[in-house]
Design goal:
Elements (H helix, E strand, L loop, with lengths): L1 H7 L4 H36 L4 H49 L3 H7 L1 H43 L6 H43 L1 H6 L3 H23 L5 H25 L5 H43 L19 E8 L10 E8 L4 E6 L5 H6 L9 E6 L2 E2 L5 H6 L1 E4 L8 E2 H5 L8 H10 L3 H6 L7 E2 L8 H13 L5 E5 L7 H14 L4 E6 L2 H4 L4 E6 L2 E6 L1 H7 L1 H26 L1
Helix pairs in contact: 1-10, 2-3, 2-5, 2-10, 3-5, 5-6, 5-10, 6-8, 6-9, 6-10, 9-10, 14-16, 14-17, 19-20
């Protein structure tokens, strides 16, 4: 029940009104349905028995009117329930998505992207269906059970004892199924996660799959995931399929018993023919309502797994939150790391950054270089609080990043990540992510600085060119330049370029570095790179090795003081020399 309250919390008023109107309409339908058999009994016992055709016609027309009004109530109930359930799912999905947006990277890593997608889609749909069933059947079934039983007892209390045998059998069957089905459906939802993960991974990497001709291999992996889900579904649902035949057997046996005992009562004149026919209708209504109630109960049990998974997301607290009285202004782009340790799993014995100390003045151009896995990206991710440090403090503008309002801090820091992400829409739409109020002049200036204006202008639609999903219709280097332009439009105090010019040639990279100095001279620029040429002109260069600062200084200083930096420089210089040597030898020959 606590999970249900959490899920229902915050429902919009109009959907709550629809939720209330649905059962009210349903009650009207049930009252009329239980009244119609009485009218039918009068037609048989009075009109037909006395051969009173006018009475039969009058009562028949009245019964038809009751049926039509019952139909109207049922239609209204269905409409209100549909509106309520659709609004409920819309509200719930919006809450979940909003919650996910507040998550830190660590929170998202905990759930995985595929699992969050399943919870937003399949799990919410499961609960939506149950919600619609609840506001209809959870009112109709008990009310019909009570009303039908009352009418049946009013006709013949002795014959109604059949209910006392049927109800415990149905209740036992429902309880047996519900207690054993929940764990199986939990397992099934995990298989949904695995299948979604396989689909997502394959579609995102479809170009790689085709390039390596691994289509058959991926098809086999998908087939295995689909088969695992199928087996889990069969295992979970084979309990449910036994419930319907059990209910039907109980219902038919009850009707047969009613025919036998009721028929004898008609023969002995203890019951009229009309009463017996009405009693058949009431016993069908009562047992059908029990069956529906049972299915609702089973559906509730099945949806428990989905409710629990959704509540896990709603209950999850972000690792990164605003302080009580946040600082709302970042003074400058100065950065200071003081004895910083960081671990993804928050374990001190598994830190990827250890005892990091560095100081960067506002407006400096800073280079960060290091081998693969040296935690360069992790280091800069602590600046805008994408993660929080395990120990020590990270300061921006003289204040600990944990003391800032998150929006204020992140608006002051622009990151161009290793993986360039563009969204469906036009080039202009993507650029305005940096500043939705940017003028045309500002956009063009930023694109020129990122060396992107020329290739954008070469497109027929220019800045209104529609990008495919992920920017599939532009090259890797063009993506990088668009992302740099988008970051520049933020006019940040700190600009972080995480290996963001790796897909462009050295001449283009040189033009971008020169333009950055002109367009944002007071912005602190942090350049993470693999190429020494990308950072050698920086004011200070930090060398990372194994999550620690191995050394820092200018290019010339590091060549004489840091063995790692010199080794990288020499290897890259040697690589360049090797490329030139064959040409020279070929020329001589």
């Amino acid at each position: 029940m606590s999970n249900l309250r959490k899920i229902l919390k915050g429902m919009e008023k109009r959907y709550a009104v629809y939720t209330a109107l649905s059962p009210v309409s349903m009650i009207g339908e049930v009252l009329l349905e239980t009244y119609i058999p009485l009218v039918m009994a009068r037609i048989i016992d009075v009109g037909i028995a006395n051969r009173d055709l006018p009475y039969v016609l009058r009562t028949g027309i009245f019964m038809v009117c009751c049926a039509l009004f019952s139909l109207l109530c049922g239609a209204l109930c269905a409409r209100f329930a549909a509106c309520a359930s659709q609004g409920f799912s819309h509200n719930l999905r919006r809450r979940i998505f909003s919650k996910i947006q507040s998550f830190s990277f660590a929170n998202i890593d905990k759930f995985s992207t595929a699992s969050l997608i399943t919870r937003l889609t399949t799990d919410v749909t499961n609960i939506q269906n149950v919600y619609q069933m609840m506001i209809r059947m959870c009112v109709r079934s008990p009310f019909m059970l009570i009303a039908g039983s009352f009418m049946a007892f009013s006709i013949d209390a002795e014959l109604s004892l059949i209910f006392l045998v049927a109800i415990p059998i149905l209740a036992t069957a429902i309880l047996f199924v519900s207690t054993r089905a929940h764990p199986r459906f939990e397992k099934m939802m995990k298989k949904y996660d695995a299948l979604n993960a396989r689909v997502q991974e394959n579609l995102v990497g479809i170009r790689v799959v085709k390039a390596f001709v691994r289509g058959e291999y991926e098809e086999e992996k998908f087939k295995n995931a689909a088969q695992d889900l199928q087996k889990a579904q069969i295992h979970a649902e084979k309990l449910i399929i036994f419930l319907t035949p059990i209910m039907q057997v109980v219902m038919y046996v009850s009707i047969i018993a009613t025919m036998w005992f009721g028929g004898n009562k008609v023969i002995t004149t203890d019951m009229t023919t009309g009463q017996l026919i009405s009693f058949f209708t009431y016993i069908a209504q009562v047992l059908s309502s029990l069956m529906m109630l049972g299915m609702v109960f089973v559906s509730l049990v099945l949806s428990r797994a989905s409710m629990q998974r959704i509540c896990e997301v709603l209950d999850e607290e972000s690792d990164v939150t605003n302080p009580e009285n946040p600082i709302m202004n970042v003074e400058d782009g100065s950065i200071c790391f003081e004895n910083v340790d960081f671990s993804y799993n928050k374990r001190e014995d598994n830190c990827v950054l250890t005892d990091v100390n560095l100081k960067i003045e506002s407006g400096q151009v800073v280079g960060i270089i290091g081998g693969t896995g040296s935690s360069k990206t992790t280091l800069v991710s602590l600046i805008p609080r994408l993660y929080d440090s395990l120990k020590g403090s990270v300061k921006v503008g003289g204040n600990d990043v944990r003391s800032y309002d998150l929006t204020t801090l992140r608006d002051s820091v622009a990151m161009v990540l290793q993986k360039n992400v563009l969204f469906s829409g036009t080039i202009l739409d993507n650029l305005k992510w940096g500043n939705e109020n940017a003028t045309e002049e500002e956009i063009i200036q930023a694109c020129k600085a990122a060396d992107a204006h020329n290739f954008i202008s070469s497109f027929t639609e220019g800045y209104k060119t529609v990008l495919g999903q992920g920017g599939v219709n532009v090259s890797g280097g063009q993506k990088q330049r668009l992302c740099i332009a988008r970051a520049l439009l933020k006019k940040p105090k700190i600009l972080i370029l995480d290996d963001s010019t790796s897909a462009v040639d050295t001449a283009t990279e040189s033009r971008i570095r020169t333009a950055l100095k002109d367009i944002c001279p007071n912005t602190t620029k942090i350049i993470i790179a693999q190429r020494i040429s990308s950072v050698k002109d920086a004011d200070v260069i930090f060398v990372l090795d194994g999550g620690k600062i191995s050394g820092y200084g200018t290019h010339d200083e590091l060549l004489t003081t840091n063995a790692i930096y010199k080794e990288v420089f020499d290897s890259q210089q040697q690589g360049s020399g090797d490329c030139d040597m064959p040409g020279e030898e070929g020329g001589e020959n």
